[in-house]
Amino acid sequence: MPPGRDEEPTGGDPEEGPVLSPEELDIAEDERVKELDDGRYVVSSGDPIADTGSEPAGQIDGETASDRPVPPEPDTDPEPAGAPSAPTPPEPESEPDAEPELTARTVHEWLTDDMGAANSRYGFDITAAFDGEVSQQRMVSNDVVTIFESLVMWYAQQIDRNTPVEEVLGILLMEANVPVRYPPDAIVRTLESTDLSPEDSIADLLEEIREDEGLQL
């Protein structure tokens, strides 16, 4: 056993302090020291270290567990009952779809598509102004004569509601720069509807027309 620490050291200069002997520097024989491998020791601060072939509990590479910082445990406690829950953020309101710009072009495009979907051979959709008043008319048909008749009669009615339609149409046709050519059969049917005969003169024809207030073809 190495000499106790109370024994006076031998050798050395007393003025420079006590000098430890090589035996005193050897700590391998101390019961409170356990050598793990070359140059690594476990030192106990109190009781002797039991020879269990492994490091004492709580000691790693010469350090005790109390020497190491202990990380804080995560807060896993459930939310206490009755605690107010975090408010749910409101969902962003969707912006309303912008209405398409209404222009004359978009209106015409819509009317074109709508008329094309009518599945008729003929048709018209008119918006017209008559002496400051706006009127509209729409019609579709597979009969070209029916469409034309409806169109011109509606137009004549908008010109003058106090005058018969046939008279308004006659005035419009007479005043128009476009001459109207009637088929011969129409002239023959008109003459046959009178009391005239082939022997009557043109003067008789004019007189008949004046009495009937016009020639109806």
Offer a quick outline of the entry.
The chain is α+β, with helices and mostly antiparallel strands and about 220 residues long. The chain has 6 helices and 6 strands.
What is the strand and helix layout of this fold?
Layout lengths: L21 H4 L7 E5 L2 E4 L15 E2 L2 E2 L39 H13 L5 E9 L2 E9 L2 H16 L5 H11 L8 H9 L9 H10 L6
Antiparallel strand pairs: 1-2, 3-4, 5-6
Describe the protein in words.
Residues 1-100 are annotated as: Disordered. Pfam families: DUF7500. The chain has helices at residues 22-25, 104-116, 144-159, 165-175, 184-192, 202-211, and strands at residues 33-37, 40-43, 59-60, 63-64, 122-130, 133-141. The chain has 217 residues and is an alpha+beta fold. It has three domains: 14-65, no CATH class; 104-180, no CATH class; 182-217, no CATH class. It has a two-stranded antiparallel sheet with strand order 1-2. A two-stranded antiparallel ribbon has the order 3-4. Strands 5-6 form a two-stranded antiparallel ribbon. The termini are far apart.
